[in-house]
Specification:
Elements: H1 3-22, H2 25-29, H3 36-45, H4 49-58, H5 64-72, H6 76-84, H7 92-112, H8 115-123, H9 141-155
Helix pairs in contact: 1-7, 7-8, 7-9
Amino acid sequence: MAAADKVFTEVSGGGLQKVAALLGGSRFLSRQLTSTLDAHELLLSGLPASALDHLVGQLVFIGKTESLEKAVGMSLRTWQRRKEAPSKPLSQEQSGRAWKFAEILAKATDVLGTQAEAEQWLERPAIGLDQRRPIDLLGTPAGVELVEDYLERLEYGVYA
C-alpha cells in the first residue's frame, strides 16, 4: 500500500474525526471535516486559536508549557498573547504542528487504549527511540516520522 493510500485509509477510517474532536470539532473549527483536503484547507487558513486552547485543555498529564513548546513550537507567553486575540488564526506552521500533535495523540490513544496512557507514553523515554521521549522529537519533521514509525511498530507488536 502506498504511503498516501495508507494515510487516506487511516484518516478516512475515523482518524480525521478523532483529530478534529481533540481540536474541538466543528464548534471550534467552524466547519465539518469530511476529507483530508478539508483538513488541508483548514490548516492553510490557520486553525482558530480556540482549537489550540481546546487541545491543550484536554491534556491530562502533559503540562501546558511542555505541550506548547515541544509539540506545537509556541512559547507559553506567545500562547497567552494569542488568547488576547482569539479571532486571529494560528500561522500555517503552528496550525500544522498542532494538527500533527493531535494526530499523534489520537494514534497513541488508539494503540495504547486511553488518552492518559498515550500522554504518559509521550513523556517517557522509549527504548525504540534510543531512550528519547517521544514528545521531545515532535519539533522536527524527522522526529515526527520517528515517533509515527515507532507507534506503528507498537501497534503491530514489534516493541510491545
